[in-house]
Structure formats: structure tokens, C-alpha cells
Design goal:
The chain contains seven helices and seven strands, in the order βαβββββαβααααα. By secondary structure, the chain is of the alpha+beta class.
Length: 206
């Protein structure tokens, strides 16, 4: 059946696939997992990280985010991240994005990549295609969208959750894709995001 995350955890780097297992997935064989890796526009990802930083820490504040360059440090702003399995450091916020997705490309087990934007705007077609790709078939003759937030409870995102309609409005508009980013943020983002990832998924710099 379909699980809400892979056994090693949806945010855990794939390098720990065989070293870390979530508390709810001890009985799931790794060889029975067919991961779907969801990637989103890197600039939208930066905006998302400014709203919900999870366990990532770097110098920024509500008026200066993503703040890719630190005036205090006089260099690109490094980040620290805490996973269940370990703690890590990256040279920059874009490096976290690059390393996470590139690591999945280097693996040789079956997996599929999906753009978040395609899942959002073409949910029926993408979901049915993925279902067939994994050897399954739809249980219903009609497709049902989940209109409320997919984030249950308050542990991850608190009360700040995004419904389907809110997500469609946010991602359907292009004017807030770089909201809050300075000219210097934009310059360093263009320099730091892996161009191969952007080309592969047809993402573009502003």
C-alpha cells in the first residue's frame, strides 16, 4: 500500500536509507519501497523555508530572509541542520537543496521524481500515472481532491497551514515567487542553485 513517507523519513538524506528507520516503519522492508521524491521550484522552496525552517538554522530574521549572504560573517551564509540520525552543516541554504536531490539521483534503487507544481495543478493525471507506474490501479472511478491541508495536527507547521485553494492561489501567481529577496539574494541564488537540477525540472531563474 501507499505510505505517507519512506521508512528512513521524508526529510532524512537518502544516504541514511539503511542506517535510520522511523518509529512507525520498523517492519517495512527497504526493498519493498518505491519512493516518490517531490521537488519544488527552488525559489518557492526558499520562501517556504522562510515560513517553516524545520530544524534548519541560519542567520536570518522576519525582515531579511532568505539572507543568503551574511554581512556579519562577510561571506555566504552557512546553515546547520539537525536530523534524527545526525547533525550536518552546509555552505548555504541552496546547498541543502542541491545535495538532498542530487543524492537521490546517484542512487540505483527504483524511484520517481515529481514536480510539486505538477502534482498541485494536474493532481488527477499525475496521481493516476504514478499509481500505474507503481503497479497499482485507482480504487475509485472518480478522483477526489483533498481540499484541506495535508498536514495533520500542529507538530510540523503549527496553525499556519496551506489548503489546496491557498496553494493554487500562491503558486498560480508569479509575483510573490521571490517576495522578500534582495538583489543580493537573487544574485547568490542564481550562483548557488545547481543549474543541472533547474534544467532537468524546467525551473528558471527570475
Amino acid at each position: 500500500g501507499m505510505r505517507w513517507q519512506v521508512p528512513w523519513g521524508k526529510h532524512t538524506p537518502v544516504e541514511f536509507r539503511e542506517a535510520h528507520v522511523t518509529s512507525t516503519d520498523h517492519d517495512v522492508p527497504l526493498q519493498n519501497s518505491f519512493p516518490m521524491i517531490t521537488i519544488r521550484d527552488p525559489y518557492r522552496w526558499l520562501m517556504s523555508m522562510c515560513r517553516h525552517k524545520y530544524t534548519v538554522r541560519w542567520y536570518h530574521n522576519i525582515t531579511a530572509c532568505p539572507n543568503l549572504y551574511s554581512d556579519d560573517l562577510g561571506k555566504i551564509n552557512p546553515i546547520r541542520v539537525r536530523y534524527a540520525a545526525m547533525r550536518d552543516q552546509k555552505d548555504s541554504l541552496p546547498a541543502l537543496y542541491n545535495d538532498f536531490y542530487n543524492a537521490y539521483f546517484k542512487e540505483d534503487f527504483p524511484r520517481v521524481f515529481v514536480r510539486f507544481e505538477d502534482l498541485l495543478f494536474f493532481g488527477k493525471n499525475v496521481t493516476q500515472t504514478l499509481c500505474r507506474c507503481g503497479g497499482g490501479k485507482p480504487r475509485r472511478s472518480h478522483f477526489v481532491h483533498v481540499s484541506e491541508s495535508a498536514k495533520l495536527g500542529t507538530a510540523a507547521h503549527g496553525a499556519d497551514k496551506t489548503s489546496l485553494l491557498q496553494a493554487l492561489i500562491r503558486y498560480g501567481k508569479g509575483d510573490d515567487r521571490t517576495k522578500g529577496m534582495t538583489e543580493r539574494d537573487l544574485r547568490y541564488a542564481k550562483e548557488l542553485f545547481d543549474p543541472k537540477l533547474l534544467d532537468m525540472f524546467d525551473y528558471h531563474h527570475p
